[in-house]
């Protein structure tokens, strides 16, 4: 890695890094295929009647797990974000799990349930997914386990979905996991194993246990293509919402996206989907805590060997629990290396400031990880690196026609007391 970048990372200052490996979307040779995105969209449609039966809150949406696209002109002004149109993609309020993780975790658990029920002969090979709601399927699933390692939100999404189908569910949590997430899981009948270690260690231990026991299905956040493609279907949803608002995305009207990144599955899956829908007109940036920039350190070091944030002298300590990940998914960086525009980092204090601004100027309840997305436009429009990116892609004169989408990845399920303390902290830092 470049010495200057290393020094800036070690100084823990927020920075923007532009990915030199970004190329034309169609030229990207990656280990997945575009038709896996359209397949995931079709799978979600097929799962909708089952989702409607499993979750009361999905009755009105026809079983779709989808979020609003919210225009946030006031918030953008309060953050000094300048020209263009600014939106929050409201995954903080996604049904079922209150975070972007509902798009991946629920998808993988339901598809696993479907294939297991077929394999065990519990439903006919051509039965629709809604057949999983039958009592005899649920009873049989009670002797099968779904396990996952999580900093919190993936555990909520996998645990809730697994219990809804009648599975035994075990969530392995890292030391960073917030107590309210543990409590909520236990209320849903999920068994929680708390590790006094970081996220990677919790996942490794859960994977080992699952390998030794064939009754355990392990949702592997570091390697799962199912999770990745569950997230990717969000791109078509966003595309429909932009069309509804008559917002073009093309060479004259660029789309900038800011996606909070932990292990990389959620932002990677969404970004991969977006690149299939919008091609080179979608400019995807990941955002990571300044102490946990795992995707940045890996991409900036090349992909020959795994590099984690401890290797460059960082602590991986951050209030953004969903992003407290030391080493990025190697699968995700393989896919994203030719497709990602860049990564910017954030200081924890800014997360709280922006969380308070999101409440006070847009009425949005975000958790600290999600608030990270709000700093993207400023990083792009006001840093030398961001300006360089715009110049390199011929976009300097097009910022007035640009659309910025900040992907708010979680927050609506944060208990009131906890949220109020975040808010107070943010307001105190801001004033
Ligand atoms: C709120 C929130 N944002 C972003 C992320 C990052 O997702 P991923 O770990 O798939 O990169 C997480 C992960 O748990 C999260 O909980």
UniProtKB/TrEMBL annotation:
It holds the Pfam family PALP. This is Probable D-serine dehydratase. Belongs to the serine/threonine dehydratase family. DsdA subfamily. InterPro entries: D_Ser_am_lyase (IPR011780), Ser/Thr_Dehydratase (IPR050147), TrpB-like_PALP (IPR001926), TrpB-like_PALP_sf (IPR036052). The keyword Lyase applies. Signal peptide: none annotated. Keywords: Lyase, Pyridoxal phosphate. Its cofactor is pyridoxal 5'-phosphate. One of its GO terms (molecular function) is D-serine ammonia-lyase activity. It comes from the Bacteria. Its EC number is 4.3.1.18. It comes from Phaeobacter inhibens. It catalyses: D-serine = pyruvate + NH4(+). Transmembrane segments: none annotated.
């Amino acid at each position: 890695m470049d010495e200057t970048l290393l020094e800036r990372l070690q100084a823990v200052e927020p920075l923007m890094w532009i990915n030199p490996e970004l190329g034309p979307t169609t030229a990207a040779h990656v280990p997945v295929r575009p038709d896996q995105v359209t397949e995931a969209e079709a799978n979600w449609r097929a799962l909708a009647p089952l989702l409607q039966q499993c979750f009361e809150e999905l009755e009105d949406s026809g079983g779709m797990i989808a979020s609003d696209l919210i225009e946030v002109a006031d918030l953008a002004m309060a953050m000094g974000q300048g020209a263009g149109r600014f939106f929050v993609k409201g995954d903080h309020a996604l049904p079922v799990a209150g975070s972007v993780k509902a798009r991946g975790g629920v998808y993988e658990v339901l598809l696993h349930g479907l294939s297991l029920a077929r394999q065990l002969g519990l439903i006919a090979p051509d039965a629709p997914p809604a057949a999983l709601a039958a009592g005899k399927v649920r009873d049989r699933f009670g002797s099968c386990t779904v396990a996952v390692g999580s900093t919190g939100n993936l555990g909520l999404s996998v645990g809730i979905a697994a219990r809804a189908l009648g599975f035994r569910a075990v969530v392995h949590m890292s030391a960073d996991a917030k107590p309210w997430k543990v409590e909520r899981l236990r209320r849903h009948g999920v068994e929680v194993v708390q590790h006094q270690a970081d996220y990677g260690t919790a996942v490794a231990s859960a994977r080992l246990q699952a390998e030794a026991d064939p009754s355990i299905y392990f949702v592997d956040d570091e390697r799962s293509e199912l999770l990745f493609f569950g997230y990717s279907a969000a791109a078509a949803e966003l595309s429909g919402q932009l069309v509804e608002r008559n917002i073009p995305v093309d060479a004259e009207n660029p789309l900038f996206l800011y996606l909070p990144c932990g292990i990389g599955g959620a932002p990677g899956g969404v970004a991969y989907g977006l690149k299939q829908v919008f091609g080179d007109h979608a400019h995807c940036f990941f955002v990571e805590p300044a102490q946990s920039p795992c995707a940045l350190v890996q991409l900036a070091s090349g992909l020959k060997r795994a590099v984690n944030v401890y290797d460059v002298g960082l602590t991986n300590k951050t209030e953004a629990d969903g992003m407290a990940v030391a080493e990025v998914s190697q699968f995700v960086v393989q896919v994203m290396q030719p497709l990602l525009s860049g990564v910017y980092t954030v200081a924890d204090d800014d997360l709280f400031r922006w969380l308070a601004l999101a409440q006070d100027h847009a009425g949005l309840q975000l958790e600290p990880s999600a608030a990270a997305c709000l700093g993207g436009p400023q990083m792009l429009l006001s840093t030398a690196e961001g300006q360089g990116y715009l110049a390199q892609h011929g976009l300097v004169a097009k910022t007035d026609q640009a659309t910025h989408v900040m992907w708010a990845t979680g927050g609506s399920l944060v208990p009131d007391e906890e949220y109020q303390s975040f808010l107070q902290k943010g307001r105190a830092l801001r004033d």
